[in-house]
Structure formats: C-alpha cells, structure tokens
Structures
1.
Amino acid sequence: MKCTDLLLQDHKVILRALDVLQQMAKRVEKHQPLEHDDVEAFLRFLRSFGDDYHQCKEESALFPELRRVLRSPEGPVERMLFEHDQERSLVEAVEDALFTKNGPEFVHFAHRLIDMLRDHIRKEDHILFQMIERSLSSEQDEKIVSEFEKFIFDPASMSEFRKLEWKYMRKVA
C-alpha cells in the first residue's frame, strides 16, 4: 500500500469526525443540550488522531522526504504545514469556547475548523497526493510507509469516537 493510500484512509476518519462536530454545532445553534464531556472526548480524539497520529506522520515522515525531492523552499509542503498550524489554533479556539461556555463562539470556530479541514483534505487528496505519486520513487514511498508504521493510534480512542459518532450521527441518517 502506498503512503498516499494510508493517508487517504486517515482522511476518511477525519471527515467523519468533522460530520460529528457539525452535528454538535447544530445542536448549539438550536439551543439543544450538548454534553460538555462529549465535546471534550471529541477534542481529545481530534488531537490524538488528527494531530498526534495523522499530521505527525505527514510532518515527520512524508514532508521531509517530499522536501528533498521537490527542492522548493516555498512550496506545497510549507503551505500544508502552515495549514496544520492554523488547524491546531482552531482546535484551541473551539476548546476555549467550550470552557468559557460561549455557544456562539463554539459554533463559529467549529464551522471555521470544519471548513478549513475539509478544504485542506481536498487539497491534499487531489493536488498534493498526485504530486507525491509523480515525484516519489517506489523505494521512497516504501521508506515513508515504513516510517508511518512507527506511529500507533490507541484503539480505545477510536472506540470512544465511534460512540460519539453513533450518538450524534444516528439521528441524521
């Protein structure tokens, strides 16, 4: 399996998580109850899967190799890293709004995070990954996949996310 295939699988999980966040924001917009613990669990999942697992694979294994191949100081890798930092800031803003019990800010930052991450994933899936497949040799790809295998995601966190997904998405379907 190619490194881009593995990242595409991660993106599918992140997009599902964004659907959950969207439902949480809709509840707040409609003045419906939203359990504080659910949002905390969601943010833990987003940080552990989206940042500590997925983005770290990109930043530690893929991007350094891609930089060597592209030899571009201000290219797509830097743009993706910039967006990763913006995403982290938006996660913090969502968390701050949660802890200050500011519903309108929670909704605002949740929507910004959702829009930004969906756009980021679209760019990676349809632009960056095509560039990667054209630029990396099979040996380089295998090296990156081998590096990816060093990153472990806690299955308990995925189980916690699936509970949230079931709770917030079953009423939508």
Note: The CA atoms of residues 156 and 162 lie 10 Å apart.
2.
Amino acid sequence: MNDLKNITIMIVDDEENNWIFMLDVLRPSNASLIWARVGQEAIDIVESGKKIDVILMDMKMPFMDGYETTRAIKKINNTIPVIAQTAYAQPKEKARCLEAGCDAYISKPIITNRLIKLIAELVNKKNN
C-alpha cells in the first residue's frame, strides 16, 4: 500500500455510508481525511485555504451535484486534483466528469489499490 502520509484528502459525499467506507479504505494509507457532506461545504473548505492535496468527488449529490461543485472549486483553486467517483461507468459519463474539470475518474465499486495509486499519481504530478 502506498503511504499517503502528509496528504490531505477531502471526500465530498452526502452518504455517510460512503464516508465510512472511504475511512476504512484510506485509513491504512496514513492520509488525513476531511468529509464535506454537500457541495457548498466543499467549496467553503477550499475557500478557507485549508491544505487539500486531492478531492474525491461524488458526482450525484443533492442541492449541488459534483459537476457544479467541481467547476466552482476549480475557479477558486485549479491546482487541486479532483477525482470523480460515480456508479455510472459509461464513456459518456467519464467525458462529462472530465469536461466539468475533474482530473481523473473512478467508478464504483471502488477498488482500493487502484484508488490509492491514482491519488499518489495525481499528488506527485501536482507537486512536480
């Protein structure tokens, strides 16, 4: 398992079960985790200037979906990589996520080692 110590990941997801799943999946990586339950909360956290190295964005949320949230976040700070997470695995959906500003895409169910590798790659790319 890649060590993500000193990496802060914000998980944007309205479902508490998904947050708990991500805690279980990412805890062994040593990353710091922040949970934003809705899009506006995620935007507020980014606006606050808090250190965030990568964002895992659920695309299907109430009030403000992940597409709109990603666009707003990228206007504030376009250097934070955003990984779209969605249960919809069609190529059209992937294109829509990338069009909204997401840097990568991962479909549910999430495969742990693939997610950790993707996070590490995006953070390394950002820092180099």
Note: The longest strand covers residues 8-12.
3.
Amino acid sequence: MTSTFGERLSELLCPAAYAHAAHNVQLIETHISWVLVAGAFAYKVRKPVDFGFLDFTSLEQRRADCEAEVALNWRLCPDLYLGVVDVVERDGHLCMGGAGEPVEPAVAMRRLPESGMLPALLARGVADDRLMERLARQLADFHQAVATGPGVNEYGTPAALRA
C-alpha cells in the first residue's frame, strides 16, 4: 500500500529537507493546511479535505488554491508571498522544492517574526486602537481600489453569503 502525503509529512520536519538553513522546523496544523515553519521561511501545504464550502480532494484543486492565495495576497503583502513551490520526492525522501518528482504544491512565504504576531503585540500592550485603525484603514483602502464587476460581484450577494 502506498503511503499518503499526510503519513509522510514528518519527513519535512528534517532540516535536510530544505535547501536553506532550517533548524527547528515546526509544524502548525489548521483545518485546511499544514504549515511548515523552516528557518526564515514558511510553507503552506493544503490538506486533501472536502468541507463542502471548499474541496481540496484533487491535486489540481490544491494547486489552484495555492496559486490563488499567492495571486490574491501578494497584492497586500508582496514581500511576504514568494510563490508556489513543489514538495518533491528525491532519493526516496520528501524535500521542499528543487529537483525531484513533484508530490504536492506549497505556498512559499517569508516567515513573520514572532514579535509581530498578535499574541506578542497584545502581551506588549501595542495592539491598541491606533494599530487596529491603521489596519482597518489599509484594508478599507485596498477594498475600495480593487476591481469589481462580473466574476466578483456575485460572491457578495445575499444568496452567496448564505450558501
């Protein structure tokens, strides 16, 4: 029986699986992704799940979602989103990127410093009203400037929101 990607995920916890320095590789699991934090980078791999509102059961769907995430989020964080790379099998081991047989796509990102994460900001008392207002203004300005029309508007209808 062939093992699944999820069963082999631990191979990517080894620093040798990365072409860059990656000591203390960490795995963060969400309901739809495995996030591998490796040195100065993070890699998000979609789980093969179907929750009805999203379906990642095929490799093509997972790749399309990774590409969409990069295309959408790069607009707000161009220094963070680096692109889509493949987890590859090389010499019988899973590796992040490089030569080998592609196994799964992954969103490649620069790692955010822990000091900038919300829990750290809250602990230092700097996640205040001014910061929230700056973030809200940046998001409002972004949404004001993005394209609307066919292919976009239907996602904001009451029927789409209920679904």
Note: The longest strand covers residues 81-90.
